[in-house]
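Running this now, will post back.
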Amino acid sequence: MIVPILRRTAIFVISVLVASVVVFLFMVVLPGDPAQVALGVNATPELVEQTRQEFGLDRPLISQYLDWMGGILSGDFGRSYVTREAIGPQLLDRLGVTLWLVGGGVLVALLISVPLGTIAAVRHRRPSGAVVSGVSQLGMAVPAFLAGILLVQIFAVRLGWLPSGGWTPPVRDPAEWLRGMILPVLSLGLVQGAVVTRYVRSSVLDVLGEDYLRTARSKGLRPGQALVRHGLRNAAVPVVTVLGLQLATLLVGAVVVERVFVLPGLGSMLLDSVSSRDLLAVQGIVLVLVVGVLLVNFLVDVLYAVLDPRLSAPRRS
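Update: finished.
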């Protein structure tokens, strides 16, 4: 198992390097001079040139890339073209908010999808199974931002149980932080839970028809016991794949949800940086998001080897 994990680690590192080059070049080819944008249209050519020299924009692209990546590897994402403030500390603070949101969304999605998907599969010939499938199908059609607006309308505006938005750091007031995160997390988790429920149902249905599960039942195990002991682990392999893909969707969905609930996360910082054309900040944020997606894919590959060691076993000719 060690060799496959090392091979996947090497692929992950190479993918990150390639992604960093793509992100850097993509930002470079965008029209407009970052120094001119930062100073405004009334800036003199001399001041623009001085700003270009200050940020190293007058140097060759390879030097700019190496300095940028060298700084990132040491935790320095540079200074904003617009505010002249360090990007790294801001990005770290915003990343914490987004991780709480996405992590809570994943937890809610799993708590919903695993039991409901299993029920829908086990009772697929009964009305209860059809109801679960229908509700999950309906949930897949609801965007996360619309779910957030509906939750705010019900639980914040009409009932007044929860705040409609805002952010309170957990170290300052854990209770208020928890109240403020419930609706954003639910808006992400409910929609993604509906999507994953469909895949859990399909995966469990495939497992229910396997010979080893019938053998376990013939040895005296009840259907539920046989499924828990021998079926769920095999059913988890395709579900892990889907969950890894949905994590990328959660990161994208978090951008809009953060706007709906006025959360100072990475998505809000990205939108603000794009609107002000702060390209260096956009570069750093996009790279962090891309590395996050690649890291999720890497962890999914490692989970494959844990859940099913046959996937990492060497092939025999």
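The chain has a mean pLDDT of 78. More later if anyone needs it.
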